[in-house]
């Protein structure tokens, strides 16, 4: 082998030596042909006029051609230049050259790229040339001429040029990557190069100045040499150019200072020591010094844990919490009804009449106004007045009842002053209010494009804008309203908006309905959206005892979530779920995707009356703490009295929604101010977000619509069961880890024991996977396994130790357990 690859001199053999003969033949043939073509084309371009008349006389020996390659050259030129491509024909010759070198395996060109470029220009160039030199057919060839002629007739001259420019522009953009960012990058690089060159130049100009100075000194020295030829050798001028330019030059001469005296000194043979005005060194100021800032790349070292999670993400992708119900479809808007015409109709007469009444009445009480403006909302019209200077706001406030009497209307509310407006507002109910349908608000851009975590759309404001709030930020909502004023519709509106936005894996409801009728509809979506205690039958809780257990269970869930968040170093559920999705949290350690949990209590007064502190305590605890772990409360009551809505509850429910209440005392209890007693009912509401009170018309969604929505969701594939809340110790139940009652063991206890023993792994998440269980149930089984001694105690992040070594021993053990 060595022999083949090396010559006698030991040099590797040239690649051409390994080429086959046909390759060499065809390669050289292509190159020669390319040369012949090029020369023929040049010759043709120079002589074509005289040879044109001889076209087609190839066989006629009497006729001579002036082309260097005779008639063949003439024929080639005519064929490629005149009849087809014009000057672009040279590119064809070039292509033969590329082909030849390619066959000979010479890497002078990148063949495919070069061929691509050449083909582009073979097409583009004739058109371009024909567009410029229309009359000169030879330059563009027939191809270019005819195409331009054709394009000219169909897209006109302007279109033709646009096509030419766009095509070449696109070619450059695509070929040379001329994106704005790339251009910017190149510009910056060029700037850097220019800048560094400039710096160099500056430095060299300094050097140059120094050189000039030195040269001058040298010349001067030479002059001195000339004047004192006798002492030539004593002056060490020759060493000067190498003397670095500095303030102190040791031996340098200058004609100005070379006085006769010095000459004499020289003549007398004394050693010369001349001081010279050395060229001033260029002292760089701070601005002159080139200053480059290099930002060191942030060394983002991944720790072992991050690397592991990145590997998992690259292998399996991000954790998709929706995967179990990947095909889940959100209910379509068509399930909702429109409830008549929602156009706000302007009744000019009514507006005029009300305005006159307000102005007249205020005048009677000597309250002058300088301006009045009306804004028409769905249920009320807001008249904003600007009182004349010197009028007290309290004077107008006092007139509330008089204005109401004068307008003979219910639900007049005076807002004095309007926050942030400098006016006084008088809300007057419209004679023909417009209903706000749930459909209209849910189909709005505002709702559809919202990025809120838990978007709740309440309805429309007085200025007809859709009003939405994020339940995750509220973070708990207290609702009040006398019977029949729209509270239940309001709850349905809230639930509906959440159902239209959140996937079942992201949201669970715990529904408490002591009235037993309002929320029962939602039991159809139990396996999708509801959460319940492990052993309870109904997901909608109506029994007060169960409510207490459920609330306590929610508190346990909250504590567990806090523990999980703490272990994951996260502050909020959002951060935690993000981390979990990025596979940074190990499910083996109990981590799981945490859905939001919304607790809805429809009649809170009822609960407080029957269970008192037992309910108040967990509610207050949840309200105080649960916001960060994604548990939010919506508590509604008919009777917003102080013994129902206690100070502790109120303090932790910053967001309040008030429908019409009976008395202003009730209004103060719920909103801390009067006003809710002035509402007109039918969904007319006040919303308090902790800062201001906003009057809204609640969106209307009636029972058949809700039914359609829950039917739609319920008919789809759901989870195996409702989301299980953690079990809590109840007074009735005695089952706990320590006191295991074999009669109360889980139906899957034995299967779980077999799995644990056969795999020798006491892991809850493995049980979850193998038996397809929820985390809580698997955890309970694991506790039972621990209580029976099959597995050891909880061991931090590691799996529990399995105490039974094989399945035979297990079967014996299980039999003993049964007896
Ligand atoms: N947003 C609304 N728009 C129009 N009408 C409404 C609206 N909300 C409620 N209503 C009307 O008021 C009636 C009573 O509403 P709803 O059942 O919600 O009252 P409620 O406060 O829940 O009463 P209760 O506490 O007795 O259940 C509805 O049947 C409907 O006719």
TrEMBL record:
Principal place of residence: membrane
GO biological process, one term: cell division
Domain of life: Bacteria
Subcellular locations according to the entry: Cell membrane
Keywords linked to the UniProt accession: ATP-binding, Cell cycle, Cell division, Cell membrane, Chromosome partition, DNA-binding, Membrane, Nucleotide-binding, Transmembrane, Transmembrane helix
Listed transmembrane segments: 24-46, 79-103, 115-133, 153-174
Topology in membrane: Multi-pass membrane protein
UniProt cross-references to Pfam families, sorted A to Z: FtsK_4TM, FtsK_alpha, FtsK_gamma, FtsK_SpoIIIE
Binding site for ATP: 481-488
One GO term describing the cellular component: plasma membrane
Similarity comment text for this entry: Belongs to the FtsK/SpoIIIE/SftA family.
Protein name (record): S-DNA-T family DNA segregation ATPase FtsK/SpoIIIE
């Amino acid at each position: 082998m060595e022999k083949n690859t090396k010559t006698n001199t030991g040099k590797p053999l040239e690649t051409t030596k390994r080429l086959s003969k046909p390759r060499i033949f065809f390669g050289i043939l292509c190159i020669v042909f390319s040369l012949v073509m090029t020369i023929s084309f040049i010759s043709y371009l120079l002589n074509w006029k005289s040879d044109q008349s001889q076209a087609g006389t190839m066989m006629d020996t009497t006729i001579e051609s002036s082309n260097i390659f005779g008639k063949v050259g003439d024929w080639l030129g005519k064929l490629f230049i005149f009849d087809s491509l014009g000057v672009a024909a040279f590119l064809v010759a070039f292509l033969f050259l590329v082909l030849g070198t390619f066959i000979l395996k010479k890497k002078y060109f990148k063949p495919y790229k070069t061929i691509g470029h050449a083909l582009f220009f073979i097409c583009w160039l004739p058109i371009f040339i024909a567009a410029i030199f229309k009359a000169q057919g030879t330059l563009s060839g027939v191809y270019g001429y005819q195409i331009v002629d054709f394009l000219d007739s169909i897209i006109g001259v302007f279109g033709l040029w646009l096509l030419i420019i766009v095509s070449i522009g696109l070619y450059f953009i695509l070929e040379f990557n001329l994106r704005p960012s790339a251009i910017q990058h190149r510009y910056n690089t060029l700037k850097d190069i220019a800048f560094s060159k400039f710096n160099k130049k500056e430095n060299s100009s300094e050097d140059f100045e120094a050189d000039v100075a030195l040269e001058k000194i040298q010349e001067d020295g030479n002059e001195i040499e000339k004047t004192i030829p006798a002492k030539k050798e004593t002056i060490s001028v020759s060493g000067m150019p190498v003397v670095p330019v500095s303030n102190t030059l040791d031996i340098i001469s200058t004609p100005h200072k070379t006085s006769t005296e010095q000459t004499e000194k020289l003549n007398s043979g004394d050693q010369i020591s001349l001081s010279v005005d050395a060229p001033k060194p260029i002292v760089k100021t701070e601005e002159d010094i080139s200053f480059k800032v290099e930002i060191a790349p942030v060394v983002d070292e991944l720790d072992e844990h991050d690397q592991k999670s990145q590997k998992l993400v690259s292998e399996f992708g991000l954790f998709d919490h929706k995967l179990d119900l990947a095909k889940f479809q959100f209910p379509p808007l068509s399930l909702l009804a429109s409830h008549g015409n929602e156009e706000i109709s302007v009744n000019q007469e009514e507006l005029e009449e009300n305005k006159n009444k307000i102005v007249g009445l205020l005048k009677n009480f000597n309250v002058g106004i300088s301006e009045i403006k009306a804004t028409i909302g769905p249920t009320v019209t807001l008249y904003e007045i600007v009182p004349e200077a010197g009028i007290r706001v309290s004077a107008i406030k006092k007139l509330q009842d008089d204005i109401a009497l004068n307008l003979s209307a219910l639900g007049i509310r005076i807002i004095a002053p309007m926050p942030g407006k400098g006016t006084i507002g008088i809300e007057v109910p419209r004679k023909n209010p417009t209903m706000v349908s749930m459909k209209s608000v849910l189909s709005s851009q505002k709702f559809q494009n919202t990025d809120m975590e838990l978007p709740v759309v309440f309805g429309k404001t007085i200025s007809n804008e859709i009003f939405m709030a994020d339940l995750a930020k509220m973070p708990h909502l207290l609702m009040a309203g006398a019977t029949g004023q729209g509270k239940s519709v309001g709850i349905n509106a809230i639930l509906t908006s959440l159902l239209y936005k959140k996937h079942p894996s992201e949201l669970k409801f715990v529904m408490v309905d002591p009235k037993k009728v309002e929320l029962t509809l939602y039991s159809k979506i139990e396996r999708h959206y509801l959460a319940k205690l492990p052993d309870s039958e109904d997901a909608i809780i109506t029994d007060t005892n169960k409510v207490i257990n459920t609330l306590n269970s929610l508190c346990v869930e909250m504590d567990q979530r806090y523990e999980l968040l703490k272990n994951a170093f996260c502050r909020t559920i959002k951060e935690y779920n993000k981390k979990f999705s990025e596979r940074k949290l190990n499910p083996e350690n109990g981590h799981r995707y945490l859905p939001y949990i919304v607790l809805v209590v429809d009649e809170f007064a009822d609960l407080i009356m029957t269970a008192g502190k037992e309910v108040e305590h967990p509610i207050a605890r949840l309200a105080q703490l649960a916001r960060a772990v994604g548990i939010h409360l919506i508590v509604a009551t008919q009777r917003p009295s102080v013994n129902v809505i206690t100070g502790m509850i109120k303090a932790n429910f910053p967001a309040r929604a008030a429908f019409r209440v009976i008395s202003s005392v009730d209004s103060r209890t719920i909103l801390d101010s009067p006003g809710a007693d002035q509402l007109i009912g039918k969904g007319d509401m006040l919303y308090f977000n902790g800062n201001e009170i906003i009057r809204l018309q609640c969106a209307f969604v009636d029972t058949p619509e809700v039914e359609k929505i829950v039917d739609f969701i319920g008919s789809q594939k759901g989870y195996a069961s409702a989301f299980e809340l953690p079990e809590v110790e109840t007074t009735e139940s005695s089952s706990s880890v320590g006191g295991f009652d074999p009669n109360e063991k889980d139906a899957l206890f034995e299967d779980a024991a077999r799995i644990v023993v056969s795999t020798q792994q006491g892991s809850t998440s493995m049980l979850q996977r193998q038996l397809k269980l929820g985390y809580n149930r698997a955890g309970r089984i694991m506790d039972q396994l621990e209580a029976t001694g099959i597995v050891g105690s909880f061991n931090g992040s590691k799996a529990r130790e399995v105490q039974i070594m094989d399945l035979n021993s297990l079967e014996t053990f299980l039999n003993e357990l049964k007896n």
